[in-house]
């Protein structure tokens, strides 16, 4: 059996970090995707080829036996392996402790844990070969881990026949989408992968990667946005590596130490999301130019306030602050997206802004060694792309 799955990255428009504490978030899928080719093997190994992280190795039958003995849970109730099992896996032996090695370990452990958990439930004995690549910058706040986890979840659930390969797609594209029920199961197992990578994820990232489109998210409750404002955004990559797990952990530590300081900040972030939804509705109503212009001004002000609150949480970074200042000096409004600490920011591009102004901003950002690209929001979630 051999097939290919893909899933989108995401941009969190508002609500990062506060969504971990039950506040609302708005997020949208991106046209950038992760792709994983999956082939069943007779041999009891996992063969990995993930070019983006220079991973070309196998998880041997010895490690699979150890891991499978440690995993439990059922198809509808996934259960994470005990972190201590990492110490007994040969495939995770540290060649060294640099960041690149830690990222590789994260991938290998997530892949093996998802595979062993689902294979044990299926009672099968086969191995698997995985070849992965991504359009997304990895570790940059665009949901690469969720996109990757959603691909693995959909791939292994299909490999073990827990879900059927989906019928042809509606619009004739090469992306075939599973049923809502199957997507809910995929999302549950993608969340399992995110818990290994993020530590304490909210579930917003894997929900966008799995269901696609633009969603309003709160405590696992997913509401597709009735209208996705025709927002043009510029994604800006600081190219500063960082770990979402560490940044989520930093906010948790600060909030536990001074809840009286941090809870009001998170509550304000929740109110920003409410106000943004109102601005989106106005933009979607194709109202008159004056009302539309006011709605965009409200949106830009909310972006600025949200960024200041993220700085107060301690999850911005000098390069992100530089991006926001560079944008604001020429009338654009930017905020970090994702966990922060580096990674990406985005700014909204008003429909009436000239191409020349946009190109001038891109030139200025590139001279500061930032990558930037215009992006469309929305688009399909996880899909079977071939055969
Ligand atoms: N294409 C891929 N191949 C293999 N592993 C991947 C891939 N994409 C992401 N990963 C895994 O996800 C980790 C990055 O996850 P992390 O959550 O830190 O960043 P992110 O998801 O890009 O940002 P954010 O969570 O803020 O949106 C990598 O270290 C790697 O383990
Ligand atoms: C920082 C965070 O809110 C978004 C990371 O993309 C973490 C999460 O929601 O899992
Ligand atoms: Mg992530």
TrEMBL record:
User: Which reaction(s) are listed as its catalytic activity?
Assistant: (R)-mevalonate + ATP = (R)-5-phosphomevalonate + ADP + H(+)
Cell location: Cytoplasm
What GO cellular component term, any one, is given? Answer: cytosol
Q: A Pfam family name for this chain?
A: GHMP_kinases_N
All residue ranges annotated as the GHMP kinase C-terminal domain in the record:
296-365
Tell me one GO molecular function of this protein.
metal ion binding
Name its pathway.
Isoprenoid biosynthesis; isopentenyl diphosphate biosynthesis via mevalonate pathway; isopentenyl diphosphate from (R)-mevalonate: step 1/3
Q: Which residues form the GHMP kinase N-terminal domain?
A: 119-213
InterPro entries tied to this protein? GHMP_kinase_C_dom, GHMP_kinase_C_sf, GHMP_kinase_N_dom, GHMP_knse_ATP-bd_CS, Mev_gal_kin, Ribosomal_Su5_D2-typ_SF, Ribsml_uS5_D2-typ_fold_subgr
- For this entry, the protein name equals Mevalonate kinase
Q: Which organism is it from?
A: Magallana gigas (Pacific oyster)
